Write the structure tokens for this entry.
Amino acid sequence: MMMFISPRLGASLDGDALPQKIVCRSCKEVLYEGELLKSPQDVIKKYEGKCPKCKKELKFSTEGVEVHPYNTK
């Protein structure tokens, strides 16, 4: 399973929070992190449905989504 993690947990090179981070629910491997929003289905397709680290099947469920406000300076 995949889930979204709080933007506060990821940071860009200049120290600003990134708007999206997708990780494997099983091993916490970062599958996508960036400023552009990507659909979970696109990320799953990129990895051919398996986590590159733990090889578990990647699925998307809205139950694993966390949405947090973006804090600006």
